[in-house]
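Trying the structure run again after the queue cleared.
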Amino acid sequence: MFRKVLVANRGEIAVRVMRACEELNVGTVAIYSEADTDGGHVRYADEAYNVGPARAADSYLDHEAVIEAARKADADAIHPGYGFLAENAEFAAKVEEAEGITWIGPAAEAMESLGEKTKARTIMDDADVPIVPGTTDPVTDPDEVEAFGEEHGYPIAIKAEGGGGGRGMKVVRDESEVADQLESAQREGEAYFDNDSVYLERYLEHPRHIEVQILADEHGNVRHLGERDCSLQRRHQKVIEEGPSAALTDELREKIGEAARRGVAAADYTNAGTVEFLVEEAPGRGPDEPLGPDANFYFLEVNTRIQVEHTVTEEITGLDIVKRQIQIAAGEEVDFAQDEVEIDGHAMEFRINAENAAEDFAPATGGTLEVYDPPGGIGVRMDDALRQGDDLVTDYDSMIAKLIVWGEDRNDCIERSLRALREYDIEGIPTIIPFHRLMLTDEAFVESTHTTKYLDEELDESRIEEAQSQWGGDIGDGSSDDEEETVEREFTVEVNGKRFEVELAEHGAPAIPTGDVDAGNPSGPPQPAGGSSDEADLSGDGETVDAEMQGTILDIEVEEGDEVAAGDVLVVLEAMKMENDIVASKGGTVTEIAIEEDQSVDMGDVLVVLE
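Done. Tokens:
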């Protein structure tokens, strides 16, 4: 097993991966941009490294900066999470070539073959996996698109080779749109994926989006973990994901699952992945008439990474997919047979995006989490990296958290989800929680007769506005609280003979004297903490001993009434994975203790009063 894993991502997925590492007793390393200095994933990790400015291309997408951070941290593996570099075969190859560092994911060669859609279609076709009629070679000329339209009819989907989530995909309704849409798809492919190659597919008007979770090891074992239904989408972006699909019979889901296994095995793929399919919906199908084994389904693409919605599968199978990723990368074998995979109950995932659904899902431009109180209870899971008081980072994706709910069946899951969403209290920024509550009372969604086009073409937008008005709460004014002055200072710190350059940001706190600090000399006297606090609500009138940094109280060494001398340890404070003795600056009597063990304190908080 690995000693230390660098997570090349941010936010909730970085914390998700780190939690899996913690359970495997593996150390964790975060990377962060200047915009994420105070990010939750930075707080959670054992250590963290700045990889550049806010712009993703100069930080999270900088291959050399990420690998250099791994070297500095002496990490022996890199996990990419999802997004950013997760499906970048070039980066994966660089990690594979880096001495002493393992890539936690599929091999770069498999990523390249399945990540480029035309190659993936060829592999799947050869493995007898149904594919949508389309091209297996890139197209560059409008004449090729027109010829395809004459043979297969319109509409046509022009898709970027490296695309996904609707980016780099354009729909051509008739011949007059060919040139403009081809150019637009190529332009988006270059901008988003550094690849302007595009291919063609027949465009299905009203499909369901069904995907199958795969695990494959280096010993030839390929398992599928059931399907997820991701048909509720807005402009090709998934909004609510669930599993298993209520629209499929057991016979059809087994056909789709086995097709996914065949295709992945043919590609010599290892680690976790998702095979996505489009399933043709039957017009006028009722809620009690699931699609049978004769329904048409077509391969769409392979996501060569962990998916945002992997949590749904974890909840209904009881398998930790991220831990399995790490174990497979370490050479371990998948230790269960296909017939041992059991689906228990129903689960849904709600993406908590910082968007105002009533304003065409406009992303928030800023704000502070003035209140952040997530739900709990049986069957409720939160994947986030937030805490109350955090400023919203708007430089990246608008998704700030994920709510995952499990129930014994779909109806139970919907009822529990409604309860959890009512409990979820966020103030200071807009979110799409009101939209989710609306969907859980929407007839088409509840009956599972919706398709990928439902939100864009059928839902009455006035209902979204009403939901936002009724349940939106305090969404703030889009600004962060920047009234407190922030002072950045640099320190040289010596710990056990090793020197570190440390940057400290002080938010509205009294200035800290600069200079060298020796934290590695146990024989020397501890440095005193002290000062006064006029604002503290204390009964004692003596000198206060204050926290010199944010941290957690590990131990209180004195009791009220104790006599202490200068240099005596009063409190042990844990901060930045280090224990710090807080000592008396002069002798006196302890008249009040203002804190308790395991309490979190901020810089300047009163700890003890001496008289």
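The two ends are 54 Å apart (CA to CA). Worth checking whether this holds up in the mutant runs.
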